[in-house]
Write a structure and sequence with these properties.
The chain is built from 7 helices and 7 strands; from the N terminus they run E-H-E-H-E-H-E-H-E-H-E-H-H-E. The protein is an alpha/beta fold. The N and C termini lie far apart (42 Å). It binds NADP nicotinamide-adenine-dinucleotide phosphate (NAP). NADP nicotinamide-adenine-dinucleotide phosphate binds next to helix 1, strand 2, helix 4 and helix 6.
Length: 242
Amino acid sequence: MKKAVGKTILVTGATKGLGRALSYYFAKEGAVVHGCGRDLQGLRLLAADLPEPSQFCEVNVADDGQVEQWSKRVIAEVGAPDLVINNAAMINRNARLWELSADEICEGWNVNVLGVTHVIRHFVPAMLKRGTGVVVNFSSGWGRSTSAEVASYCASKWAIEGLTQAFAQDLTESGKSVVAVAVNPGIIDTQMLRSCFGSAASHYPNPEEWVRRAGPFLLSLNARHHGRSLDIPGESATWRSE
Ligand SMILES: NC(=O)c1ccc[n+]([C@@H]2O[C@H](COP(=O)([O-])OP(=O)(O)OC[C@H]3O[C@@H](n4cnc5c(N)ncnc54)[C@H](OP(=O)(O)O)[C@@H]3O)[C@@H](O)[C@H]2O)c1
């Protein structure tokens, strides 16, 4: 039986890697998927494979105005999402912290941290109004541990862990049944992993293998998980320090 019939699921960063694999998985399970990204070719491919009522839009999550417009369109068409996957993120080139420019560091934080806050601010009020929903903020092994040459990314993912816990407390105080969790997806062979691990990324599962465990797990999240920092069962939880 399909596991997501009747659900509307929002996936940021749907054009590649984990977000792309999740979009296909959720659509296959019967969900209406609203995904975003900046890569027009990737968005066209998704729209061709996963037709309406699913929709894939050009949205830069670092741009508050673009996220606001997207939220208005999605909520007007399908109402508040049942599940939000804050997946979009980037990693800087491998470099010691002082070797990155201020612009490079800001770019990462604008996507990885502010992007998540923009999505929460524009979609969660409608979820609260309805009184239900789940928000998943993708963290990382590097949101709970550290390595050299990825300090700015580590800091952004540690921020996601803290942000998610405090956001979950806000939700608890609201008295509504909207759930927030931080999820470390594991270690998966994507463009992001290739950027930091090089060819060693091929030792890890690809997104299509990963989604077989991750997809059902993400659909199973509920009030019991509220405020927790979770790992995908069966996935390596910690990045290897090279
Ligand atoms: N792969 C791993 O081993 C691993 C491990 C731990 C955590 N994670 C986390 O898992 C998530 C997915 O990672 P991934 O490995 O799938 O990365 P990826 O292959 O590099 O894909 C990143 C996705 O994010 C989108 N994106 C980046 N900046 C964006 C922006 N400003 N606005 C909208 N979309 C944006 C990209 O789309 P466009 O290019 O179209 O904008 C792309 O679809 C991230 O949160 C990452 O930190 C991954």
